[in-house]
Amino acid sequence: QRAEFAALRDLPAITADGTRVTVMVNAGLRDDAAAIHLVGADGIGLFRTEFQFLVSAALPRRESQQRLYRSVLESAGDKPVIFRTLDVGGDKALPYLQSGDGDDQEENPAMGWRALRLALDRDGLLKAQARALLEAAAGRQLNIMFPMVSEPWEFDAAREIVEQQKNWLAERRKLLPSRISYGAMLEVPALAETLDLLLPKIDFLSIGTNDLTQFLFAADRAHPKLAERYDWLSPAILRFLARIVRQASAAGVPVGVCGEMGGRTLEAMALIGLGIERFSITPVAVGPIKAMIRSLDRSALLPVMEQLLATPPSDMRGTLSRWAEDNGI
Ligand code: PEP
Ligand code: MG
């Protein structure tokens, strides 16, 4: 089987009926970027910039952030990289970063002072990171996305910080990225309710199914007793996602999935059935997911998914699994 996936490396992820699906990888460290070429991915769809902060004993300086981003872009070559701004706080606490008010113990860190919330309060961090990203991507396209956007104004505020840094560099006649593409992560359910307001502002949307599932089901993503309890293939998740995909597609905004859900064969198949055409997944999943895509008749699946969402069977997973089997997947 390994040899079979290796043979897929140089083949594009195209469904049997001709839809090109973008399959990128999730990464976080310098050497991860090489995975793109090893597994034959279309780029890095989620670069978790907080990894550098988590493995450092002290706050990484702007220069060292810039060096990392540049080297990642270099190893990606002409493949795109989507940098996610710092997603620290919560369970990814940095010992050297404290709120300063002596109130760092959180009852619910996943729902706490983390990610974009922290970045907007401590905007010095985001400013330095934005500058490092702009400098690293000088002369090429910069793709940047913000984690845990809960309301559209947070996206505006974060984008404004990046734009200010860009203007600062422009005033000094520095080489800028050829284009900046701004995205938001949808992982807080509330954002779905104001998506119509956000969509005109963004260049792309990336659904983080790890956090989204945790918040939709109110179930800690790391709790062992809950790990098997709620299924990614439940009608609740699938209907929720279907609505987002429909809205984003109608607005002409590319929408992808970057959570672990997309790295599992049956789940990824269901996502394609909802209209998802962009994935960012763990590198080891690229082979199996490409194999699934290349054997999938997407046009046959779309109406099946629609019908299953309208009248969900009691065993959605079993039903989808049987469909996959009957259809040579
Ligand atoms: C997610 O929440 O689905 C996601 C991709 O981000 P992380 O796993 O880094 O929280
Ligand atoms: Mg997340």
General description of the model:
With 329 residues, this protein is of the alpha/beta class. The chain contains 15 helices and eight strands. The chain has helices spanning 2-8, 35-39, 50-54, 62-76, 115-121, 123-136, 152-171, 189-192, 195-198, 209-216, 235-250, 265-273, 286-295, 298-310, 316-326; strands at 22-27, 44-48, 81-84, 141-146, 179-186, 204-207, 255-257, 278-281. Strands 7-6-5-4-3-2-1-8 form an eight-stranded parallel β-sheet. Helix 1 (2-8) packs across helix 13. It is globular. It starts with a helix and ends with a helix. The relative contact order is 0.13. The model has no long low-confidence stretch (mean pLDDT 95). Bound molecules: phosphoenolpyruvate and magnesium ion. It is found in: Cytoplasm. Belongs to the PEP-utilizing enzyme family. This is phosphoenolpyruvate--protein phosphotransferase. It comes from Allosphingosinicella deserti.
Summarize the SSE layout with pairings.
Elements: H1 2-8, E1 22-27, H2 35-39, E2 44-48, H3 50-54, H4 62-76, E3 81-84, H5 115-121, H6 123-136, E4 141-146, H7 152-171, E5 179-186, H8 189-192, H9 195-198, E6 204-207, H10 209-216, H11 235-250, E7 255-257, H12 265-273, E8 278-281, H13 286-295, H14 298-310, H15 316-326
Parallel strand pairs: 1-2, 1-8, 2-3, 3-4, 4-5, 5-6, 6-7
Helix pairs in contact: 1-13, 4-6, 5-6, 6-7
Bound molecules: phosphoenolpyruvate and magnesium ion (MG).
Magnesium ion binds at residues 147, 187, 208, 210-211.
